[in-house]
Design brief:
GO biological process, one term: cytochrome complex assembly
Shape: elongated
Number of strands: 9
Largest sheet: 5 strands, mixed
CATH class: Alpha Beta
Distance between the termini: 76 Å
InterPro entries: AhpC/TSA, Thioredoxin-like_sf, Thioredoxin_CS, Thioredoxin_domain, Thioredoxin_ResA/DsbE_sf
CATH topology: Glutaredoxin
Keywords: Cytochrome c-type biogenesis, Disulfide bond, Redox-active center, Signal-anchor, Transmembrane
Radius of gyration: 20 Å
Protein name: TlpA family protein disulfide reductase
Strand content: 15-25%
Main location: other
Number of helices: 5
Order of helices and strands: HEEEEHEHEHEEEH
Number of domains: 1
């Protein structure tokens, strides 16, 4: 075997190994502790995509379109520190504003462990629907790359607010009152 052939085989092997490592690397989303501005889709003022995901009992739940209440869609993960900080506020908002807003938690299960997500829901005693995005399709559809990310959608299905990071529950109350 000549020398150039050995180099070619080595180069191909290195490329294949690098590609294999790249394909196996899970891209971790970024966690954000505060609001972040910038272009994100779906954008405020545009229709929120309709989606369907299983809840904790594997029952399919459809979210989106028009309805009689606002919808607050919250994307979270159990390992996310800011998500832990806002969890009690979400439950409090659900209890206080359930007549004005439907809160839906979307666990980014592709980036989380389902067992930990279920423990998180139990620990914070969520009584609002929690959906499991096991393949990450809805997280991707909504262009969520930081947790938590929340969208407030009006009765016509239009995104009115998009928040990345944690905001005080008083700010959520103001936004819910503004759009209800």
């Amino acid at each position: 075997m000549n020398r150039s052939r050995v180099w070619l085989i080595c180069a191909i092997a290195i490329l294949l190994a690098g590609f294999a490592v790249y394909m196996e690397t899970d891209e971790e989303p970024v966690v954000s502790a505060g609001p972040v501005s910038g272009e994100a889709k779906p954008k405020v003022g545009y229709t929120a995509p309709v989606f369907e995901l299983p809840d904790l009992n594997d029952q399919a739940i459809r979210v989106g379109g028009t309805g009689d209440k606002l919808v607050l869609i919250n994307f979270w993960a159990s390992w996310c520190g800011p998500c832990v900080m806002e969890a009690p506020d979400l439950q409090e908002l659900h209890e206080a504003y359930g007549d004005k807003v439907t809160i839906v938690g979307v666990n980014a299960t592709k980036f989380d462990r389902e067992r930990e997500a279920r423990q998180f829901v139990d620990e914070y005693e969520f009584t609002f629907p929690v959906l499991m995005d096991r393949k990450g399709m809805v997280t991707e559809l909504y262009r969520v790359s930081e947790f938590p990310t929340s969208l407030l959608v009006d009765r016509m299905g239009i995104v009115r607010e998009r928040v990345t990071g944690v905001i005080p529950s008083s700010k959520w109350r103001t936004l819910i009152d503004k759009w209800s």
